[in-house]
């Protein structure tokens, strides 16, 4: 009984091979062989290129050399006479030597290494241990001068002719080639993780899900504390400036000016209040800018509230100092009057007239001294009142600053939370899209692997039919009845 052809195999096997390897199926149907030429394999620096050139020099049309072992009808395994073959050579041999593909061995550089004969026998022993099919394998020694190339060419031609006698190796080769294609595709699908970029994007999106709300809120608190320190320092500076202006004006004020000075102090406080408001507005604008939000300050839309200056000072109460000033002024005035009219006392006619004059001068000096002392005391009284009034104004300014800071912090925090919610919603939507895409990719990957496994099982069943001994029936029913 002849070996089965591709058309004799199960329909599912034929469909899989036709889908995966249409070129090889077309060659089989046209009567051509799927094995085309010789594939040269071996370790690096074994002289493969030199050996191919010599073979072509002998007969360029006798053999065709291919670059893919799947397209080869014969494998030429090149070994180096420098040392016996090892794991590298055996690994290459396992990859390129299919079960139905003949292998011809060549040992190069025999003219360079004197112990090549020992290496030759050692290689035969190692090949026999590695696989039963290589038990009687012949290794053709080749020298650099060209000796042994003719025998190697003849062995390659014999192997190519023997391989082309039966079509079953061609069918088996197509099945093996198709199997390798399926295995390579399945390995690529398993090794390639689908959606790696999507997973990285998902991780980045979840990392920034809150829009950096925690960091922004922490930075906002630090900026608010810094602004509080700066603005309270500005309030203290304005209070000191207002106090210096008030003291300077009070020291130069007359009696009429002192009477209306509370109104003047209110004007000074109003001017400084505008400077405080401007500093607060500028600093809060900088705070919102650094926080990255566009929240507006509702208190900055209208004029700031004017600080309330306490009512004018109470009337100064006259005390013991004023009485003592009167006595001292009278005493000093009498003494001054006597000093002034002392020349008149030397004239007897004017001696009596000097007494009322002395009294008049003493009275005027006492009045001036008492009035001046009262003016100085009034200045001190107004100065003390201005100091206490500025303390009250400072407390109002500080309350104004803290209220604006608290309102700004609240608005900026609400804006940050609102932006964070929007960002979280956008991230959640994007993560949901990514999860859906990842599920689709995973389902597609699973489907590809399942399809590869089904196709691989169909090809394996075809290989079992092809490799079954010729005397055994192909159909399961016939095998059970024999």
UniProtKB/TrEMBL annotation:
The keyword Transmembrane helix applies. Residues 301-312 have a biased composition (Pro residues). Residues 291-316 are annotated as: Disordered. It comes from the Bacteria. SUPFAM superfamilies: P-loop containing nucleoside triphosphate hydrolases (SSF52540). Gene3D superfamilies: P-loop containing nucleotide triphosphate hydrolases. The keyword Metal-binding does not apply. The chain crosses the membrane at residues 347-369. Keywords: Membrane, Transmembrane, Transmembrane helix. Signal peptide: none annotated. InterPro entries: P-loop_NTPase. This is G domain-containing protein.
